[in-house]
Every structure is written in C-alpha cells, then in structure tokens.
Amino acid sequence: MPFVTIAPPAVGLDLDLRYATPDNLTGSPIYARPLCLLHPDAAAALGRAVALAAAQGLRLRVFDAYRPPAAQWRLWRAFPDPDFIADPRTGSNHSRGVAVDLTLDTEDGTPLAMGGGFDAMGPLAAHGCTAVPVQAQRNRCLLAGLMVSAGWQPYDREWWHYQLPGAAAYPLVEDGAMGPRLM
Q: Mind listing the GO biological process terms from this record (predicted)?
C-alpha cells in the first residue's frame, strides 16, 4: 500500500520539515526533498487531528513524518541516545510511516509555546515536565488531547512525537519503496 503525500493546502496543516533543512540536530539537511509521507492509516489519523485542531481555531505544524532508515542512521550517529533517537538496528516508527513530529499553531501560523523546541533532547522535552511554564504545559496537554482523540499515542520523552498504537507491527520501509524518495 503506497504512502500518502501530505501537502497543503489539500490537508489543512503547515509543513516545517526540519530534516530537509540545516535546522535540525545534525546541523545539515538529511533529506534531499521536503516531502511529508505517511502510511495510509497514519494519514487518516492525521486528518482527524487536523479537523480537531481546526475546531479549536488551531493548525498543526509537522516537523517530520516518514523517515527513511538511512536518515535514522544519520540521526543516530549525531545523537546516539535511545531515549530520544530509536536505534536504527531495531528501527524507528518514523521508518514505518506511522509516526509524526508536530506542534500547534494559531490560525495565523504563530506557534504555541511548548516550553522548548523540536528536537531539544533532554528532560524539559517530556510531556509531563512541570519545569516548563504553565502555559507551555497547557499547550502540550492540548496537543496531546487532540492527538490522542484522533487515534495517536504520545511518546512520553518528547512532547512533539506521536505514533499509531501498535506501530511496531508495521514493517520498516526503505526510501522510495512506498512512494517518492526523500534522500
């Protein structure tokens, strides 16, 4: 089953695909093309999350979705911490097309404060971290509520990461095997 390309304006969200830019933890682009791809099951769940966010006057901003295994290796070499980067020998749920990294924006594109940036690996990134400002805690809870209601499961250590329940049952997918190539 081919992956679904997620692209505005057809899907009411914003893309800020960090691994196609130098604005990521490696300091250099990992993807050659800024494409947002997801397994059809994940694309349907993302569509539900988009609708729930829109009902609140908000938009989703996606940082990453499908991640080729070769990209996972590049991230692992840059930051080999299994609490934040899945060991590429076992595989990332991003490499299965069933995980997404994202945040919430206002309708005009202003990001909601989350108490830390995307890929800011450390204790402040955890969903339940009370060391971030109260408004950021509320925004994280709002994002989690929208995503869980849409069928996603949070990863406790990263406020931005969500995956489908049972994600490990989906196969790892090589770049270009289920859609356009990213690398």
A: cell wall organization; proteolysis
pLDDT tier, 93 (very low <50, low <70, confident <90, very high otherwise):
very high
Q: Is the pLDDT of residue 11 over 90?
A: no
Q: Residue 16: give the domain boundaries.
A: 4-169
Whether residue 101 is contained in a domain is answered as yes
Q: Are 98 and 42 in contact (CB under 8 A)?
A: yes
Over residues 54-80, the pLDDT tens digits come to 999 999 999 999 999 999 999 999 999
Q: What does the alpha-carbon distance between residue 38 and residue 46 come to, in Å, rounded to a whole number?
A: 9
**Does residue 175 sit within a domain?**
no
- CATH number of the domain at 85, please: 3.30.1380.10
- Beta-carbon contacts of residue 180 (< 8 Å; ≥ 6 apart): 5, 33, 35, 37
How many structural domains compose the chain?
1
Cα(38)–Cα(62) distance, rounded to whole angstroms?
A: 12
Residue 183 lies in a domain: no
Judge whether 161 is annotated as a binding position: yes
Q: Is residue 26 part of a domain?
A: yes
Residue of 64, 105, 158, 175 marked active site: 158
107-163 pLDDT per residue, tens: 999 999 999 999 899 999 999 999 999 999 999 999 999 999 999 999 999 999 999
The answer to whether residue 107 is catalytic is no
For the whole model, what pTM was predicted?
A: 0.96
127 has binding-site annotation? no
